[in-house]
Amino acid sequence: MKEYRQFHDSDKKFNFQTMVYFCEANDSKQLSFYDLLKIASDGAVEDYNQQGMSREMLTENGFAILVSRLSFRFHRMPRENEAIVLKTWEEKSEALQLVRAYEFESMDGEKLISGLGGWVAVRPADHKIVPTKMFQLRPPVDLQTEHDCLKYGKIAHPDESELSLFDERIIKYSDLDGNGHTNNARYGAFIADALPENLRHVAFKDFRLNYAKEAKLGQKVQVFGNVDENAKRLFLVGKTDDGVSFEAELFW
Asked: CB of 95 within 8 A of CB of 59?
């Protein structure tokens, strides 16, 4: 029987071993966007947890940590029943972003997905962003390494006249997490459901996702999109009655 471990290695990278289970694979038998985001989020949370910074401990000290921006490069998508390991660690913070790196590998060391994320420390009561210099529950992190994925950051919007409605949905109770709003990984499902039919089985190379305002229970999310065949780029933006909820771009 296979056993999957969670541990910090000698480089202080958190190793989160798992497998792509049947329910985590899409119809191409590859890891779905939703489960990619779920594993990345769970790995980051557990990394902090095993360093003594559980969600409860953070709350008691007046913090919540929320993912803000993500970027992933797909070297090869993990496949159904494939054993994989996520290696994740924190890097030197920006003024308002806690920087986190992600590396998905096969168990024999093949690079599968590279990623970078920006997380924000906020006050739980009002979600006001706290400068990272004020987050002192662990020693300052000075590590900076080279990455072979796009830097997370601002995503360029096409003109409104070039956008079409690709999908819409109502936020349901099962979309919520312990923070009381739509779980960050659920947006991976929203993006997958908005893919044009001719792009559902494309081998995407890069994926960037920015979170703007959390979608709330009962709200309608309308996903508008634009396909740029010349740039081989798909742009998506999710909107609620409160404004932009998320924006994403995928390159193939």
From this structure: no
- Distance, CA of 190 to chain centre: 13
Q: Where are the alpha helices (DSSP H) in 100-233?
A: 186-194
Q: What are the helix (H) ranges across 61-211? A: 186-194
Residues β-bridged to residue 129: 122
C-beta of residue 190 within 8 angstroms of C-beta of residue 175: no
SS3 106: strand
CB 75 within 8 A of CB 217: no
Distance CA 28, CA 18 (A): 19
Which residue(s) pair with 29 in the sheet? none
Nearest to 124 by CA among 66, 53, 46, 183: 66
- Residue pair 100/90 in contact (Cβ under 8 Å)? The answer is yes
Q: Which one, of 116, 118, 128, lies nearest residue 64 by Cα?
A: 128
How do residues 6-36 score in pLDDT, each as one tens digit?
A: 999 999 999 999 999 999 999 999 999 999 9
Instruction: Report the C-alpha gap between 165 and 224 in whole angstroms.
Output: 4
